[in-house]
Design brief:
Diaminopimelate Epimerase, Chain A, domain 1, five-stranded parallel beta sheet, binds manganese (II) ion, six-stranded mixed beta sheet, about 45% helix
Length: about 400
C-alpha cells in the first residue's frame, strides 16, 4: 500500500493523478494546505503505518515532523519526499528527501515533473504522450514558464482546475490520460475556459485600482486584498508597477499572505520566511501572523491607491526627449527630460538637485518617493500651451 500527501494546488494534484495512474487502488491520496500537512504526517505516524509507503510531494514538513520522519525511515525505510521549493532544500540531507529546483538542462522543475520522473525511472508508470504533455503543462504553469512561452493551454489547465472540485478534476484527468493519445480540452471545457479568462481579466482590472504601496524593511511593496487568482494578479501588478520590489496579496478570510515578484533582485521566499512561511524566489506565502498583520494591514490601511500611468498617450511618453510629465496627489508637477547625456527632473518647473544616468532611474525616484504617475496627453498639452503663451512676446 502507498499513501501520498500532496499540496492542494494544480502541481500537488498533478502528483496525485500520477500516483493513481501508477498505483491504482493501492494508493490513498490526501491533498493538503501548507498548514494541514503536519497534522496529516502526525496522524500517519501515530496510526500503525509500518507497511505503508509514504510519499510527500510539493510540500515540506516542519522540523518536529522532519525528525519523526527520519526515525520512521530508519525503522521501515518507507518514505520518499519530492519537492522543488527553495525553502525545502535542507531536506536533501536525508536519504528520503529529494529536492531539486532545476533539472540537468537548467529547466525549472515542478513537483509533478519530478514525481513523474521518479515513477517512470522506478518502472511504476509507463511513459505515454498524453501523460508527458499533461506533466509539461503543469510544470509550465507552476514555474510560470507558460507566460514566456505563450503556452496558454498551461494557464487554461490551472483555470479548469479551479473551476471544478478536486475530485472532479482528478477523475476527468485520469480518464483522459488513460484513454487519449494526446492531452487536450473538450469543446465544453474550451467554452468555459474562454468565459473564465474574461472573468479573470475583469477581476484583475478591478484590483489594479486598489493597490497601495509602502516601504517595508528594505523593499517597496505593493499591497492588495484578494481571495483569488494570486499568481495572475501578482504578475500583472508587478509588470504594471516595476518600481515595486514585490507584490503582497492579502487573503483576510484565509488569514494568509502571498508574495510575488517579477524581479531577480528580490527573493520573496526570504520575505515569507521572516514570518514563518516559505516558497520560491518569485512566489511565496505565509500565515498572517501578528507582525505581518501590523506591517501589511494596519500600517497601510489608510493609504490611497497608486494611480496608474496614462496608457493611450501619443505625446506624453516615457523616455521622450521632449520630456515626460508626471503628477503626484498633492498636485506637484514633474518633468523628466534628457540633457547633456543625463536625465533630469524639474519639480514644479524647478530643477531638482539629483541627476540620473537613465530615464528609468529618474522615474523610479518619482514613483517611490512621490507615487507620481504619467499624466494624460490633455494635461501635458495644456501645460505646453501655457508655456508657449507665457513665452510669446507681448503685443
Ligand atoms: Mn509546486
Amino acid at each position: 500500500m502507498y499513501k501520498l500527501l500532496s499540496h492542494n494546488d494544480l502541481d500537488g494534484v498533478g502528483c496525485g493523478i500520477l500516483a493513481k495512474l501508477a498505483f491504482g487502488q493501492d494508493v490513498k491520496v490526501r491533498y493538503n494546505s501548507i498548514a494541514s500537512l503536519n497534522r496529516e504526517i502526525q496522524f500517519f505516524l501515530e496510526n500503525d503505518s509500518s507497511d505503508i509507503f509514504l510519499f510527500i510531494t510539493d510540500l515540506s514538513p516542519n522540523e518536529e515532523n522532519e525528525l519523526k520522519l527520519q526515525e520512521f525511515y530508519e525503522e521501515h525505510g518507507n518514505v520518499q519526499l519530492i519537492d522543488h521549493h527553495k525553502t525545502a532544500i535542507h531536506l536533501n540531507d536525508y536519504k528520503w528527501g529529494y529536492v531539486l529546483l532545476e533539472d540537468a538542462i537548467g529547466r525549472l522543475t515542478s513537483a509533478t515533473s519530478l514525481f513523474y520522473e521518479y515513477l517512470v525511472s522506478n518502472k511504476y508508470l509507463e511513459e505515454t504522450n498524453a501523460i508527458v504533455e499533461f506533466v509539461e503543462l503543469v510544470r509550465q504553469y507552476d514555474t510560470w514558464e507558460w507566460e514566456k512561452n505563450e503556452n496558454h493551454k498551461a494557464h487554461s489547465l490551472n483555470s479548469l482546475f479551479y473551476l471544478v472540485s478536486i475530485d472532479e478534476f482528478e477523475e476527468t484527468m485520469l480518464e483522459r490520460l488513460q484513454s487519449s493519445d494526446h492531452f487536450d480540452f473538450d469543446d465544453f471545457e474550451k467554452r468555459l475556459l474562454n468565459m473564465e479568462e474574461d472573468k479573470i481579466e475583469r477581476y484583475i482590472r478591478r484590483k489594479r485600482r486598489e493597490i497601495v504601496q509602502a516601504k517595508v524593511g528594505d523593499y517597496f511593496a505593493g499591497i492588495v486584498y484578494a481571495e483569488s487568482y494570486h499568481s495572475e494578479l501578482g504578475n500583472e501588478l508587478g509588470k504594471e508597477h516595476p518600481h515595486l520590489d514585490y507584490i503582497t496579496i492579502l487573503n483576510m478570510g484565509g488569514k494568509r499572505i502571498s508574495f510575488r515578484t517579477i524581479h531577480d533582485h528580490v527573493d520573496v521566499s526570504e520575505v515569507a520566511s521572516k514570518f514563518g512561511g516559505g516558497g520560491h524566489q518569485k512566489a511565496s506565502g505565509c500565515n498572517l501572523v501578528d507582525e505581518a498583520y501590523k506591517l501589511y494591514v494596519l500600517d497601510t490601511f489608510k493609504l490611497d491607491p497608486i494611480q496608474e500611468d496614462a496608457k493611450r498617450n501619443r505625446y506624453n511618453l516615457k523616455e521622450s526627449t521632449f520630456g515626460a510629465m508626471y503628477k503626484d496627489r498633492e498636485g506637484n508637477q514633474f518633468l523628466i527630460y534628457p540633457k547633456a547625456e543625463k536625465w533630469h527632473i524639474n519639480r514644479n518647473k524647478k530643477l531638482m538637485d539629483q541627476s540620473f544616468i537613465s530615464f528609468q532611474e529618474a522615474e523610479l525616484l518619482l514613483k517611490r518617493k512621490y507615487e507620481a504617475w504619467l499624466v494624460r496627453d490633455e494635461d501635458f498639452v495644456e501645460y505646453l500651451m501655457n508655456e508657449v503663451k507665457k513665452n510669446s512676446p507681448e503685443k
